[in-house]
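Full entry
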Amino acid sequence: MANVTKTGGCQCGRVRYSAQVDPSNAYLCHCRMCQRATGGVSIAFIGLPKSDMTWESEPDWYASSPFAKRPFCCECGTPLGFAFDEGENMDITVGSLDEPYGIEPHWHFASEKIHESWIDTSGLPRKRLSEHVVLSNKWIEATGSVPE
C-alpha cells in the first residue's frame, strides 16, 4: 500500500503533526503499558519511520520505561504515540489523526493481554450522541454544536 500524508494532533490543538504513513502498518496493541497509558483495553497505532514524522508543534514526552517514551500533550493529556529510544521507527495513535476513518488494524500486538469481550462488539446495541438529548443540548448551549 502507498504512503499517504496524514495530519493530527491533540484534543486542545496545542500539539500538531504531519506524517507519511502506510495504512497497512496499523495495528492494535494490547500490552499492559499501553492499557495503563491510555486507560483503554487496547490502543490503535500506525507504525512509521521517525523520519516520516514532522512535529509542527512539539509534544511533551513521558519516559514510560527505561528504553522508550511516549509523546503526549501536557495541557489536555492526549496520548500521541510511542517510540523506543533507539531505532528508526515509532508509532502514532490512530485516534489523534484528523481523519482516522478508513484506517483498519492489520494485526494484534501483545495478544496474550487481549480482553476478548472487547474485540467484537458488533452485536451490541448502538446509541448515537444525538439520542442523548440532555447531553447534546449541553454541548449546543456551551459551544454551538455537538463534538465531531
About this structure: The chain has one domain: 4-119.
